[in-house]
Write a structure and sequence with these properties.
The structure is a single chain. The protein is mostly helical and 115 residues long. The protein has a single domain, classed as Four Helix Bundle (Hemerythrin (Met), subunit A) (Up-down Bundle), CATH 1.20.120. It contains two helices and no strands. Helix 1 runs antiparallel to helix 2 (61-114).
Length: 115
């Protein structure tokens, strides 16, 4: 049977791991939100540039194509950042659940050791 001190240490270790996992989840969520804001800012800037280019003469066609390419590149960068942030969120969530399971196991061991 686990001693009360060992159970308490395991409980605190699990609690720290759960907090670290929650912190990682918050950081990943913030990274995802920042990527989304960057995408929207770039997309709207490219969209405005495309509209301006359409309002000009034939020589503006090259600027329109470049704005479309910039928009597509921004979208591709956003999707890459979004998927990376989503993977990080999922990993942080999984780590949080693992830490939560360890916390509950430590709590059970602590309760058993006290009895």
């Amino acid at each position: 049977m686990m001693s009360v001190e060992a159970a308490r240490d395991a409980y605190h270790t699990a609690q720290d791991a759960a907090q670290d996992a929650r912190d990682a989840l918050v950081a990943a969520r913030e990274a995802c939100n920042a990527a989304l804001e960057a995408y929207y800012a770039t997309y709207h800037a490219a969209q405005d540039a495309a509209q301006d280019a359409q309002d000009t003469a034939q020589d503006a066609q090259d600027a329109l194509a470049a704005a479309r390419e910039a928009c597509n590149a921004a979208r591709d960068a956003y999707y890459a950042a979004y998927h990376a942030a989503r993977e990080a969120c999922n990993a942080a969530r999984d780590a949080y659940y693992d830490a939560q399971d360890a916390y509950h196991a430590a709590q059970d061991a602590y309760d058993a050791a006290r009895d």
